[in-house]
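To whoever is on call:

I kicked off a structure prediction for a single chain this morning and the downstream step that reads the tokens threw a length-mismatch warning. I double-checked the sequence; it's 386 residues and nothing unusual in it as far as I can see. Pasting both halves so you can look.
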Amino acid sequence: MATSNVLAGARVVLPTGVVDGGRVIVDGTRIAGSAPADAPSTDLSGHWLVPGFVDMHNHGGGGASFTSGSVDEVLRGIGTHRAHGTTTLVASTVTGDMDGLAQRAGLLSELAEQGDIAGIHFEGPFISPCRKGAHSEELLRDPDPAEVRKLIDAARGRASMVTLATELPGGIDSVRLLVEHGVIAAIGHTDATYEQTVEAIDAGATVATHLFNAMPVLGHRTPGPIAALLEDERITVELINDGTHLHPASLQLAFHHAGGDRVAFITDAMDAAGFGDGRYMLGPLEVEVSEGVARLVDGGSIAGSTLTLDRAFKRAVTVDRLPVEDVVAAVSANPARLLGLYDRVGSLEPGKDADLVVLDAAFEVKGVMRRGEWLVEPPAIAPQLR
């Protein structure tokens, strides 16, 4: 590949808005501000050009689990999501025994050091048995700060986030511990009251793990965690926009109250993402995936998703009718900021990694570039947008 390449003619989504017939210059692995006069050009007329997607909550894909798969299997799962536009991914684990999770953290931290993943998210075991979802109840435990510390130490500086039911004994102290170590404290799988949630936010929690899911419903006398998480400007709310986890009105409610700069679309994907229906294991629990919906064999609880972020993007624009700029923020800029990566990824600006996605007029992925290399190369194309 030539040192410089001009991607021209697309509708480019920048932090300042949409530019029709815009250009993005790729120089090596980075986005550049200018190009030589003889630099080759790729015509993307009729397409959208957006930043690479950033998924901060993802358990696997391509038939591979980030909680239990081998290194090769984890890399296959990462590759599956990259082909769908996710150029930056945090690998999430599910509840397991502490020694097993610490061992898994060691394996994943090596992949983070190599740049294959952006960090590790521990979802469980420090969650409420009342809101366990697809987590093994017998392995759940209260968030003892010493045990939380064991996991983040095992991650060797690569722990990005820990999801906690902060109302449990040790929850608030664990939030403070995470903040002290530069790890995001996320409130999720929780049975907290409104007041308990406010206390956790004041202690330093900054994320709502898949808002609405695995937490008490919003009540007129007992508003619970949802009201506290939506109203506080310090909180970024995760949303799983697959048409199964959320009613469209709930998605609109979240965007209306949190605003476009406080929403992060996630996949919460498990092994079946990009792979197909069938039987899978999520941690120690068996999952049946039918027509793209994952549920526990025992009890029928939703067990993660088979979502990829390109589908979340398309649904947000074509079904939910959200502005493209807000959707780009939700899949790129907002999670990148939260993870402390916005100086490198999350927007198409000079100096940042050349991570980008080409979408056609129907918002289908036609090209994916990561650090200047086409992972999915756009075909010869004709104008499609009017």
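Update from on-call: the warning came from a stale cache, not from the record. Cleared it. Sanity check on the structure: The first helix runs from residue 71 to 82.
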